[in-house]
């Protein structure tokens, strides 16, 4: 009896805390002025070079114009960040002025093939970099604008319904079987979003593909993934941050399973993302940090547009196939700017989010790991292993149709990373797939 009383009190206090937080958040949302933010977004609506004809400008004029736009868009983004009651859904921060940044290569003919003014001899990488950063800042301002005026009011109004539907989800003994049951038979696009770097997630994906192959023995299934470059060779080679052990082993085992299932495997990532990858300085509202330019809003937009073109081409070639699109959550969630999920949302598309039930932070395990919905509003708490939304509007707001938290063997994961770090020092080969 005491146990049930304690649980009831905890639930009561938690509910009150949610209500207090959401009431304060709504008040901040309603009282914060949007005038300056709306003006900034309106000025930039047609792109960072609105009002200019770049083809008619000399290189010196274009360089000055781009640097000025980077600086002004940066100031607008900082002001919007400080004025916004919530962080943006996609953690793509504002960037520093281009002339304060270390050089990173960006080939205009690859990144912006439709913009010849960024492909001028010698200065092309400098112009492309400045254009890229200014566009990312501009999109950042627009993203905050749209979220404050459209997303947050709808999201907070739906919180009671989120809790009601979450409590109605029966927790299964087997998450794999449950996931298979959730996916409608008329699905044409199955989106699987992951948190990177967990062997348990790639293993789950492999088992799910086995079950899908058995469930639909006569149907054409095609896997399209972020983790291989477009036009890859046999089994493919991982890109950039995914090419080191243990990531390489995690994904290679999955590719081998897909090959055995005789499911076509298509890479989505443009090769220049790997070749042009480095870090840039960013400001997230509190401190300076570094990130890959391809994780900013403009970087994500460009990558997702590239992926989208491949999807459109493959869909024209395979109109009735089941596409399994496997990538990082940030590329897929319905609620994220420029995501594939946002483009595909509707009948025929189903999004499954996979996340670890715990997360490591500097070797300390924190529990529980928040799912994508809880990233959106930290006051929310869904400890359930599985979640699924019956109402399409809740799926659209949360970003996914279903979410599964998977148990993670952190001790083994730490051993994998330790072996990776010490193998070169000790002069021994890195562990193989079966070690």
Counted up, domains total 2
Strand content: 5-15%
Succession of helices and strands: HHHEHHHHEHEHEHEEHEHHEEEHEHEH
Biggest sheet, spatial arrangement of strands: 4-3-7-2-8-12-11
Radius of gyration: 23 Å
Structural class category: alpha/beta
- Poorly predicted parts: 7-11, 13-18, 28-45, 359-370, 431-435
Distance between the termini: 49 Å
Total strand segments = 12
Q: Biggest sheet, in brief?
A: 7 strands, mixed
Helix content: 40-55%
Quickly count the helices.
16
Name the average pLDDT: 78
Shape: globular
How would you briefly describe this protein structure?
This protein is an alpha/beta fold.
Give an overview in words.
The chain is of the alpha/beta class. It has 2 domains: 32-157; 171-426, no CATH class. It is built from 16 helices and 12 strands. The chain has helices spanning 2-31, 35-43, 59-83, 108-111, 124-157, 159-167, 175-182, 199-215, 247-260, 271-275, 297-317, 329-332, 340-344, 372-376, 392-398, 410-426; strands spanning 94-95, 189-194, 221-229, 265-269, 280-283, 288-291, 322-328, 349-356, 359-361, 364-366, 386-388, 402-406. The strands form 3 sheets. A 7-stranded mixed sheet has the order 4-3-7-2-8-12-11, sandwiched between helices. A 3-stranded antiparallel sheet has the order 1-5-6. The chain has a two-stranded antiparallel sheet with strand order 9-10. α2 crosses α5, α3 (59-83) runs parallel beside α5 and α8 (199-215) runs parallel beside α9 (247-260). Residues 7-11, 13-18, 28-45, 359-370 and 431-435 have low confidence and may be disordered.
